[in-house]
Amino acid sequence: MHVVGEGAAEGEALLKAALGAVQGEVDSCFDALLPIPGDARARLFEAMRYAAIGGGKRVRPMLLVETAALFGVGREAAIRVGCAVEAIHVYSLIHDDLPCMDDDDLRHGKPTLHRQYDDALAVLAGDSLHALAFEILADANPIPDPFIRAELVATLATASGMNGMAGGQVMDMAAESESYDLHSITRLQQLKTGALLGAAVEMGAILGRVPPEGRSHLRAYARDIGLAFQIADDLLDVEGDETLAGKALRKDEGQGKQTFVTLMGVDGARDQARALVEQAVGHLASHGDDAATLAALARYIVERDR
Amino acid sequence: MHVVGEGAAEGEALLKAALGAVQGEVDSCFDALLPIPGDARARLFEAMRYAAIGGGKRVRPMLLVETAALFGVGREAAIRVGCAVEAIHVYSLIHDDLPCMDDDDLRHGKPTLHRQYDDALAVLAGDSLHALAFEILADANPIPDPFIRAELVATLATASGMNGMAGGQVMDMAAESESYDLHSITRLQQLKTGALLGAAVEMGAILGRVPPEGRSHLRAYARDIGLAFQIADDLLDVEGDETLAGKALRKDEGQGKQTFVTLMGVDGARDQARALVEQAVGHLASHGDDAATLAALARYIVERDR
Predict the structure, then answer these.
(1) Domains contained in chain B, number
(2) What are the tens digits of pLDDT across the range B20-51?
(3) In which domain, by residue range, is A219 found?
């Protein structure tokens, strides 16, 4: 990891510790949510555990937990809501990896779910994780306020559905035949990747009882890192190491897709990603040192190797 | 349709009118929820409309609307919440029809979604309808009370996920290799079909602000019709007319599956379904004539030809 900019070294140490903690807590939370039943559903639960526990970077739960921490939210509630967002992310990866979609064999350095089990179970494990996200959010434990629960559900459902992640995925599929310009690619990626990253930040603020008008700087931060995240993904697809990434790369080129890299070039894309990150960090200024981990996370997003 | 029992003729006329009305209102609601956007997501929305508008019997919205009506709930809210339940039902049919699942070509008398479009779009249209269900429930319009919204979300998410419909589907897939007894088949069907039918009734009562302890007779009604519904489905698979049903039949036999019919015989299964329906109707006694449509719906469920 090569973190750039001011305070990079402390930022990197801070982030490593914080990410490690969140990864452990998210794994524990999924472990508790998915006890293997003593009936024929055991295989479903095993498949859900295979996909949800271990392996992920947990960027979305981290964004949520760190945003919530700015407003004094208890960690247990934030981790649990973070698991709801991560459940949506994991289900989307399972479905994206299917033969009829991206047909990927490797995810987080191990066989994709449909390779390890079968396509039918991958569809149903994804669907079950999708439902689990809303089961988590609707539970009065640990979020007793129903107004907060309902707002969390609305935010996550919108970010994941036809006007968010799934809609972006359909635009992305069309990208193989249509030739998108920079404006269209930006819009596509705001839906496909940005919506769920933005929801993670927004849901942290909702847990913190921040009214919508007090969230605009956080939305701006999320928008910038969402775009930077996708540009970094496009760069990784061109320049990354498959072993480190734990998944297949060089896919965009094979599919003849327009990406930020094809439209801006490698150097232009990297400059743009870094500029977006510095802009994102600027949006956090009012929080001072409290937002140091969110700032470090923004820098990590463009410099990561997986 | 051959309705049996007391008051059958009025029941049938009542039900026909009521089902026709709900079908029209559900179609209008989906039409309003799914305006085709002016970008590359148009194909996704068209696919969602293809699956969601027209064709369905709308048994679940009907159960919800009629239960809600017992407690004076406004029709607009009940129809909207009914569309959330139906969105889950429709998404599950889309995914069940996929080549890697049941590989069906025909649904409601027209090509299944993946035959009309492609497998990838069928996965994503299903996922988008899944998210849409929770978008509907989390919306403050037309349900201003966040406590009600959160309870609706919890009920639907549980009924659709690993401890409900999706879990039952996995047990059903295993039924081809395992040989289930009547107890296991009953448990399987309570999850696969019963959970969502039960959620529809329960959600009608939630909208009507009936506390959990006041819902036990409605839960009993729902449990009985859920089982009767599945027995009728198994009978339809053996005896039905494919043209009337609008889908492929004689599938259980080909897969060597145990069903209520293989375990009880055709006559035993029919007797059991009718007994369950009369028991279900008995649970509605305290509501008198107000529950006439729910009683007629219970009878329709076992006598339907599609």
Answers:
(1) 1
(2) 999 999 999 999 999 999 999 999 999 999 99
(3) 8-303
